[in-house]
Write a structure and sequence with these properties.
The complex is a heterodimer of chains A (about 425) and B (about 200).
Chain A (H helix, E strand, L loop, with lengths): L1 H20 L1 H5 L10 H5 L29 H8 L8 E8 L4 E6 L5 E5 L5 E7 L2 E8 L7 E5 L2 E6 L2 E5 L13 E4 L14 E2 L5 E5 L14 E5 L6 E6 L7 E3 L6 E5 L11 E6 L5 E2 L5 E2 L3 E2 L17 E5 L3 E6 L13 E5 L12 E6 L8 E6 L3 E2 L3 E2 L3 E6 L5 E5 L4 E7 L2
Parallel strand pairs in A: 13-17
Antiparallel strand pairs in A: 1-29, 2-3, 3-4, 4-5, 6-7, 7-8, 8-9, 10-11, 11-12, 12-13, 14-15, 15-16, 16-20, 18-19, 21-22, 22-23, 23-24, 25-26, 27-28, 28-29
Chain B lengths: L2 E5 L7 E5 L8 H9 L2 H4 L18 H13 L7 H5 L4 H13 L12 H13 L3 H4 L17 H13 L7 H8 L4 H12 L2
Antiparallel strand pairs in B: 1-2
Helix pairs in contact in B: 1-5, 3-5, 6-10, 8-9, 8-10
The chains are: A mainly beta (about 425), B mainly alpha (about 200).
Chain lengths: ~425, ~200
């Protein structure tokens, strides 16, 4: 249990420490780790993500956000800075949702929200127009992903998919829950996950590699489709680095997902990706080939990019695309129907941050004619500063969207009015 | 105004209270009142006179905030702190971070009674690269604690807690790795050196 706790807070704590180190670490020699060992996967150093440091990118490290998120006054000032297309409006839906990650709706209108290193799961309920944020689960191991199906809340905490029956009626005491799938490694690095249900009630679950780049353990760098009823699972995609977002296409039933590319190559390559799984077992290139056209300098090992499924769209380097949703509502202009909205968390391994915005991708059902445009931006301040970091999107009943932000610890609502 | 009280065990031996209402705009008098409730254990002006209780004066704002957030979420475990912070609001945490960060850090009043030990500690600090996170003056920064001038026996306790894995919250993950290979002699020397800075 203790080691689980250590792992649980590892990411957050390490990021805090590294961010605190700042200048001092820039003076020391380049970080280098031998990440291709089981010992590294199970006991990564706290700054495992710095292991492939280069002279050009030296000193870059994930920034540490405000421990208590943004105050209501700070949020009020922040949303004035967010740029949106004509007719759209952003407001604060809830604050004090520290480290907020994936969101899911309960049947009775409870908004469930996962979190990162804090280990909390929240329930946001409406009390006469005022949103109340309750911490309903504590001490889980990076419970970033969650879903709600048939009255049950499902939370994925690295190597456990936990089911909480009749969750909305038991917000005050969810109990221990029941582990319905645990055939997953406990590796902390890129071990945090996302859940997307298909029409059969199976979950698409991403498995990231336990390092920046290398030959991954065979149990990860993949996407599985998991049946929470039986605990059966199938492998649907290989060669995937760190994916923390995806959605099922309402037009075709196919699974689309975002993918964060490797770090430490440069500010501008490789690009993060939007992918689509056309057939079972496709390989998306990692670690051999990045962004569909760039062999890895060390791990290509003779492979050509033409061997792998290319991305639907390259989204940009270090934009960090996370949660995504097809827009199936009817509030936004008709041209948004079935477009993809992606929450980009933004850079750390880049001298001038980019991302930290919401992009809109317009694309045919077969993945052709993809193009992107910026939908919402303004969360970056200066070259390496954040006011907030969007990480997930969910549609509300009225067709507006909610956006989770783990830096500000807030949920925003974006709506449209002609 | 609702006021909660907890009676704490023998270590402090006094009654502490923290108001649990949602704080409005920062009111300096109210913050001071709240922070004074910490002084029973952590000392007047954030300078601890109590064994195994750290001084908080001059700790970085973010470090204080993280520790309170970790205590509240249970990620850092301490039976004294947990009940006190259970109901604390984000506003309280921000205010307490700012309050303690603004206090004058502890000054060493006693002369170093064992300069040889300090010398060993200084060498260990260089060898373990403590300054790469805690800064060259060991005053800490952002989420990293001030360790210069901290109580000597508390530094020993904290390093032992990290070494044995008892302490896992806050920057625990980083410190656990650093403290694991430390010998008892090194811990003693480091604590003596840092406490007398």
């Amino acid at each position: 249990m203790k080691s689980a706790f250590n792992r649980c807070i590892l990411a957050l704590a390490a990021i805090a420490v590294v961010a605190g180190a700042g200048q001092a670490s820039a003076q020391s020699k380049l970080k280098s780790y031998q990440s291709g060992t089981k010992e590294f996967w199970t006991h990564p150093p706290d700054d495992w993500f710095l292991g492939d440091e280069t002279e050009a990118q030296k000193g870059l490290a994930p920034p540490s956000g405000p421990p208590t998120g943004s105050s209501d006054a700070e949020l009020a000032a922040l949303i004035k800075k967010i740029k949106l297309p004509e007719g759209f409006k952003i407001e604060v839906y809830a604050s004090g949702v520290l480290a907020a990650r994936q969101m899911a709706w309960g049947d009775k209108g409870t908004l469930f929200v996962g979190s990162f290193g804090l280990g909390n799961v929240y329930a946001i309920t409406d009390n006469g127009g005022k949103k109340e944020v309750k911490t309903i689960l504590k001490g889980l191991n990076m419970p970033t992903g969650l879903a709600y199906r048939d009255g049950a809340l499902y939370v994925i905490a690295v190597n456990k998919l936990i089911k909480y029956e009749n969750a909305e009626a038991n917000l005050a005491n969810l109990g221990e829950g029941k582990v319905v799938y645990d055939d997953m490694p406990s590796y902390a690095a890129h071990g945090w996950k996302y859940l997307a249900a298909d029409k059969d009630g199976w979950f698409y679950v991403p498995f990231g590699p336990p390092f920046n780049v290398g030959i991954p353990p065979t149990s990860v760098s993949q996407i599985r489709r998991v049946d929470p009823k039986t605990g059966n699972a199938e492998l649907v995609a290989l060669g995937v680095r760190n994916s923390v977002g995806g959605d099922v296409d309402p037009r075709t039933g196919k699974y689309w997902f975002t993918e964060n590319a490797r770090d430490w190559m440069s500010d501008d390559i490789p690009s993060d990706k939007l992918n689509m799984i056309s057939k079972m077992g496709e390989h998306f290139g990692y670690p051999y080939c990045h962004q569909g056209d760039t062999p890895d300098p060390k791990f290509a090992m003779g492979h050509k990019c033409s061997e792998f499924t290319p991305p639907v769209l390259n989204l940009g380097a270090h934009v960090a695309p996370l949660g995504m949703k097809f827009y199936t509502g009817s509030q936004f202009p008709a041209s948004y129907k079935n477009n993809i909205l992606i929450a980009e968390h933004g850079s750390w391994n880049r001298h001038k941050y980019q991302g930290a915005r919401i992009v809109r991708v317009i694309v045919d059902p077969d993945g052709k004619n993809a193009k992107q445009e910026v939908f919402a931006s303004g969360w970056i301040e200066g070259d390496q500063g954040y006011l907030g970091r969007p990480d997930d999107i969910i549609l509300d009943k009225d067709g507006s969207i909610l956006v989770a932000d783990d830096w500000a610890g807030a949920i925003y609502r974006i709506s449209y009015k002609k | 105004m609702m006021r909660r009280r907890w009676i704490l065990p023998a270590l402090c031996g006094i009654v502490l209270g923290l108001t649990a209402h949602a704080a409005g705009a920062a009111d300096p008098a109210a913050i001071k009142e709240k922070a004074e409730q910490c002084s029973g254990c952590h000392g007047e002006n954030g300078i601890s006179q109590t064994e195994n209780i750290p001084s908080l004066a001059g700790q970085p704002d973010q470090f204080i905030q993280w520790q309170l957030v970790f205590f509240r979420s249970g990620a850092r475990k301490n039976e004294l702190m947990q009940p006190i912070v259970e109901q604390i609001t984000n506003e309280d945490i921000r205010n307490l971070g700012a309050y303690f960060a603004a206090l004058t850090p502890p000054k060493v009043s006693k002369p170093d009674d064992n300069p040889d030990l300090s010398q060993k500690g200084a060498q260990a600090a260089v060898g373990r690269r403590c300054n790469s996170c805690h800064t060259d003056t060991f005053a800490g920064t952002k989420a990293v604690a001030r360790i210069a001038g901290q109580r000597e026996e508390y530094l020993v306790k904290a390093l032992h807690d990290y070494k044995s894995g008892v302490r896992s919250g806050g920057a625990g993950a980083a410190m656990t790795d650093v403290a694991y290979p430390l010998s008892d002699e090194e811990i003693t020397a480091l604590a003596h050196y840092l406490a007398h800075l």
